[in-house]
Amino acid sequence: MPAALPLDPPDARLIDDDVERAFAEDFGKGDATADLLPADARASASLTCRENAVMAGIPWFNACFRKLDPDVTIDWLVRDGERATAGSVICHLHGRARALVSAERSALNFLQLLSGTATVTAGYVAAVAGTGVRVLDTRKTVPGLRLAQKYAVRCGGGHNHRIGLFDAILVKENHIAAAGGIEPAVAGARRLHPSLLLEIEVETLDELRRAIDAGVDRIMLDNFTPAMMSEAVAIAAGRVPLEISGNVDVETIAGYARTGVDFISVGALTKHVRAVDLSLRLQLGR
């Protein structure tokens, strides 16, 4: 099972906004196909997960159906953060038939995407089990769904890096060049935003030493070889947490974790996600 982490989803208003956008692009002037069903018809539906997966996105799924039918009954057999096995029924619904068929695609789009993020994350977390390394996400998210995907990362046992450009400072090579070097970049960041976590990206062991001396909160080792990572851990000697970024996949992450770093950030958690295979089957009059 993924690690136990706070799984509080984003505010309900944000989820509702996500659903509004999804419906706006799907409905247009209305669901012309759903008009084939009697307006007063009721139906039941069962949701099957066709592959092994870690679930995420239930609040978005529920919100889609409840927006069209506030009285819909939704009974879940799993929770976000739990594993579903291939072929298992994970949810039952009962409500207005038109609402069930109209909300289906948007609801499944949210659930399959976010469960894909959670499932991929769980694979990375499992690969570093026992090392003490925390797997982090990045800002490489689907536009408009950042908080949703970062919630899904937590469902998979991963941890969130900064949410955006506002809640932490990450000084990268272009910032360093524009500021005139590591030291003036760090000094300026401390002066302007003293309460924010300050992380700096380094590309060499010399830059690592300078960043440590400058007093940053965390250091990102960009595209270091495993040998350089191990040397960086020895140089830092626990004074500053170290993060690895770049060229990380599920096959290489365990080796990187064994170098002794503290964090490994993986863009693939939210960028290269394959949707989980889900199927919703409806029966009228039940």
Task: Summarize the entry for a quick read.
The chain is α/β, with parallel strands linked by helices and 286 residues long. The protein has helices at 12-27, 58-68, 97-127, 146-155, 173-179, 182-192, 205-214, 226-236, 253-257, 268-271; strands at residues 42-49, 53-54, 73-76, 83-84, 88-96, 134-136, 169-171, 198-202, 218-222, 242-245, 263-265, 278-284. The relative contact order is 0.16.
Spell out the key features of this protein:
12 strands; four-stranded antiparallel β-sheet; 10 helices; 41% helix; six-stranded parallel β-sheet
Percent strand equals: 15-25%
Average predicted local confidence, pLDDT:
95
Helix coverage percent of residues?
Answer: 40-55%
Largest sheet: 6 strands, parallel
Structural class, by secondary structure, is: alpha/beta
